[in-house]
Amino acid sequence: MSQDKLKADSKSDPWNNIAVAVFFGLWCGAGWWSVLGNDELSSDMYGLDPGPGLMPKLVLSVLTFGSVAILVKGLVGLQVTGDGMPNPVAIARHVMFPALFASSVLLYLSLIFWIGFVTSSLIFSTVWMGVLGLRSDRRKRSTVLLQAGVGTVIGVGLIYVIFGRLIGVPLP
Amino acid sequence: MLENFIAHAAEVLVDPILLGLSALGVALGVVLGCLPGISSTMALAILLPTSYALDPQAAIVFLIAVFSASVYGGSISAILINIPGTPGAIVTQLDGYPMARDGRAGEALTYSLFASTIGGLVGLAILMLVAPLIARAAMEFRSPEFAMATIFGLTMLAYSTPGSTFRGVLAGAVGLLCGMVGFDVVTDVPRFTFGARALQGGIELVPLTVGLFGLAEVLRGIEGGRSRIQGISDLGDLFPPFRQLLSLWKTILRGSAIGALIGAIPAAGSAIAVAVSYAQEQRLSKRSAEFGTGVPEGIAGPESANNACVGGALIPMMTLGIPGDTMTAVLMGALLIHGLRPGPLLFTERPDFVATVYVALFLALVLTLIFGFVFVRQVVKLLRAPSHILLVVIAMLCVVGAFAIRNSVTDIFIMGAFGVIGYVMHRLAIPVAPLAFGLILGPIVEENLRRSLIVSDGAWSVFLERPIALTLLLLSVAALIYPVAAPAVRARFAARRTTRE
Question: Bridge partners of B182?
């Protein structure tokens, strides 16, 4: 299925519209909380300059209006179609690996500043190249693990040489 | 202009370091561009940090080589495995893959390479001719015109993803908010810092783009779970009959013109240009029914449009400081880091740098042509590399690249956060590119908007009293209303036609 068709299908799905409204709504919430809690943004002591509060309020108003419009579209769509909530287990299964990977990147960052770039990168790279390789082809275990080892050495080595040595980035 | 170009060409061609950087950029661009799941934007985003250590001239030679070569690189996987490596190659696969399946893969790649080179050269010629004119006209721009031009650019970015205009506008609004994080440049008032010192410096463009276009794509690739891709590996004879190649000259020129024109429209992008070119060639061809079965025009037209877009997209970026597409948005980040502000002043204050851009693009096109013919068989073997290995290496590149900007841990976390945000946006079918555009254009809009109001004693009518500003404002309003009004108007006409019948 093409990306455009996927996107078209998503946009007509009421639950997708509700999720999108929540996504933009979170930005609105954080934005308004910051703006309304900052008296300097509402002050009129800037003379002819409309002040630092103009653009934030304009943009947040557009975002708020848009979020509400998409939410209403989603709720109306839900009334019409009566679709049940998407299966959270199916969604979780789909995003499990990306979520794990993103979390492990956080762990990787902590390790970089604790045990150094090279060691932490060797661990991160070997583990993930192995896991992802085995996920796609369990039959050729030894080949996958060999590829993970070789890929790790070459990948980490290249990054270290280019950034650490050639460019002079102070990698921990 | 021509004398400047020739003088700089000579300077670059005798410098082994600049030549070497261009060749390296071309090699990396073609390789990364041809790998599915790694777009041209991603290639540019992850290689951008490597240009920090270079001086501005060397950095732009390298990055433009990556930019230009990756656009061609996407057609290799489109032809051989029916998966476009870049969005601009999305149409090339329609005739490229069938031709490859018929045992003429080498021919298809040659049509693509030949058309790409000519298209790129036409785009460059148009850039060299048109950019100085626009820059001269833009010197008459004042704050109201710049404010409206940037607003026009922001509304046009909604069209960067047809069918998602409204969500694109909202994503752009999020980008505008991100651009306001930190201290206000006029009054020093902190905005959206939430009391965190780390946010007082604002959100840098480069970690955001590395996260949005690099890490987010890695997360998408991991979700996909695809490891190795099977494709056509026997290229056969690389060279079609010379007469056949020459007979495509009209197709290539048409595609080049379409690509350069559409590329010059802010946020339009190559995906639109290639689609228009393909449709045009099919309409004009005597064998339109054969399109989709392996017709050379179906490859040459879109590929010339795709590469002409590079020159076209550089026009608004260099003359007005408005990115022509997502790749030029990333390129702008590189220029800003090196202290160069794209816009009309670039042509008066740094004409040498402008000439370097022209030469860099010319050199990249020539080197891509050579590289494409000499190394295509070796590049094809790379398509068999397991994608998960590349994805993990790219993730590490994103981390290190984000750190390399200011040696700041904050930038790594910004990159990580926007990587996750970008992934969530993909899952929700929200276009990502407008967010980056909003971050770039937001500060420009605000600065010029506020300056306009200060100069006009607070009168908003300043945007209506100046003809260029008013024209741009009306175009922006029309661009916003069109997606909503057009279907309604079309439906009304269709109903009237039905009633009459």
Answer: B191
Q: Alpha-carbon torsion B130, B131, B132, B137, what sign?
A: positive
Residues B207, B178: contact at Cβ < 8 Å?
no
Decide if A155 and B396 are in contact by the 8 Å CB cutoff.
yes
Q: Tokens 């008296």 label which residue?
A: A39
For B34, the 3-state DSSP assignment is: helix
Q: What's this model's pTM, rounded to 2 decimal places?
A: 0.81
Residue B180 and residue A70: Cβ atoms within 8 Å? Answer: no
| Closest CA in chain B for residue A56 | B177
Domain co-membership, A155 together with A92? yes
Residues A146 and A75 in one domain: no
In this structure, is residue A53 part of a structural domain?
yes
Residues of chain B with pLDDT under 50: 227
Please list every residue in chain B whose beta carbon sits closer than 8 Å to the beta carbon of residue A64: none
Show which of residues 86-115 on chain A sit within 8 Å of chain B, judged by CB atoms: 94-95, 97-98, 101-102, 105-106, 108-109, 112-113
Has residue A7 been placed in a domain? yes
Statement to judge: residues A127 and A60 lie in one domain = no
Measured between CB atoms, does A120 come within 8 Å of chain B? no
Pairwise CA distance, residues A8 & B294, whole Å: 29
B39 in the Ramachandran plot: left (φ > 0), alpha (ψ -120 to 50) or beta? Answer: beta
Both tokens assigned to B480 = 């916003």
How high is the ipTM of this complex? Answer: 0.90
The tally of domains found in chain B comes to: 1
Domains held by chain A: number? 2
Mean pLDDT by 10 residues, chain A (172 residues): 48 86 95 90 77 91 95 89 76 85 90 90 92 79 86 89 80 81
A112 and A70 share a domain?
no
| Structure tokens, B412 | 């790594």
- B426 Cβ contact list (under 8 Å, min separation 6): B216, B220, B432
3-state secondary structure of B180: coil
* DSSP three-state, residue B183: strand
Domain that holds residue B285: 2-500
**Cβ proximity of B105 and B236 under 8 Å:** yes
- Which of B186, B389, B419 is the closest to A147 by Cβ? B389
A172 occurs within a structural domain: no
Asked whether residue A152 is domain-assigned, the answer is: yes
User: Could you tell me if A60 and A92 lie in one domain?
Assistant: no
- Domain of A77 in residue numbering reads as 3-81
Pair (A77, A103) in one structural domain: no
What integer pLDDT is reported at residue B229 of this predicted model? 52
